[in-house]
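User: Can you write out an input/output pair for a complex, sequences first and structure second?

Assistant: Here is one pair. Inputs:
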Amino acid sequence: MSRLLFALVVYLLVAVMVVLPPVLVFAAALSHGLRVAMATLADPDALSAIRLTMIVTGISVAINTVFGTMAAWTLAHFRFPGRNLLVVLIELPLSVSPVVGGLVWLLVFGTQGWWGAALERWGHPVLFAPPGIVLATVFVTFPYVTRTLMPMLAHNGREAEEAAVMLGANLWQVLWHVTLPGARLALLSGVLLTTARAMGEFGAVSVVSGHIPGLTETMPLHIETLYNGYQTVAAFTMAALLALMAMGVVMARNLTERRHGRTENTA
Amino acid sequence: MNPSRPSPFPGLRWQRDPLPGFGLGLGMTLFWLGTIVILPMVALVVRPWGEGLHSGLRAFAHAAHDGRMLAAIRVSFTSALLAAVADLVPGLLIAWALVRSDIPARRLIDMLVELPFALPTAVVGITMATLYGPNGWLGGPLARWGVHVAFTQAGIVLALMFIGLPFVVRTIAPVLRHLPRDVEEAAGILGASRLQVITRVILPALYPALVTAAGMAFARGIGEYGSVIFIAGNQPYHTEIAPLLIVIRLQEYDTQGATLIGFVLVGISLLSLAGIGLLRRHLSYGTD
């Protein structure tokens, strides 16, 4: 009896707390039928937001993957003074509010910021333009690749890599043929986590984007504009599309985590 | 872990290291960290003092009397704290269901728990506002009972609870799985009731995990923006969260005011993370 009660309580909790919100996203998107929903996506501003999100995500993930991999390699294989400090600093963006993650770029590149005046003379805007959106996204998704990959590299050790060097391999051959094949799934998992976070980033991007529909609005920002403009169906259709993309990426990540036998904390 | 051999000349160690790439790797790491994290964070720390120590102190003294800013920080702080603590109850129940019970559909629940993590914050925001809004699936019936969630602090707490739940479950579940069962069995044999086993044996062993779980949910919740602003009502002094006030200050071209709030928010996050570390160490004395 108490077991049945426990099961019912858990099912109810999961249904109300966790399942109901995503169900509502799709129900609201499809409330006027699939055709109406699809039509809202054909809007030029919507298409521009989708394109910008893809571009920003692609660039941000590429930057954090290349540098994050090198950081994981360095931190896992070498001991040097200040190493622990680097690990702490790499994790720092996780404990910073996304809005602050956007604000700090205003302090550097804004008109009242350090390099604002210099940038103005140069004539290439960083803020309220795609480069600023990329910087904010890179900041917010900064640690994920390193913190997923580093424990795996440390666990694999460096004997195989040292052996490859003895046999005459150079750095790139070691990385490409020895290090990364041994940590493929961990790297993939970190990249997917970065991708999911980058696509949905809202607070940081909101501060540096300028919200220009058709130019500097990513999908999450466009959702806000539509919702505040009472275009509920369009807002939820865009939300449903973004949710599908992010859920697909997170699900792919869970599969890789299961395959490399490690269910690490999602933070 | 396989650290390189200790050397009598620590500064020269890498020159004898058979593995190449230390210089390049460290250089790339420092460049990446320096441009993306350290440079902007230094700007945040330095900015309030930009015109000298005196003007910096005056800015902080002024901020200490800024009622709207203090109220916004209080709203963010109390909401995040309430949500983190409240999340422990469903978090513990779901974690128990996942690793210690035999109820059907555990694998499905395991997957579903990941949903709040997978949903982008802006999506969560408009969804919670609609769900708990006056005409929403849950907000409608609640309103008939006289309970108003949307545009009150309760709405902020609910949104943060949704965001925090996966972190809480994922932190508690592995610890719960590895608790030694023989202690519970021994307590049972010695005559402890089921409730006594839970409150005297299981919960104390879980304290460090519960603190970590709530701490992570709190540290995340205090800076949350996208999932909260749509449901919050955003009324100054009552339901206006600190990150939103940063955005408002920026729209008023008050960069200094925005920076001060950001500075305080980051300070609270870092202090709370350090506090969690200390509390955890204190609580785990004698348990492991």
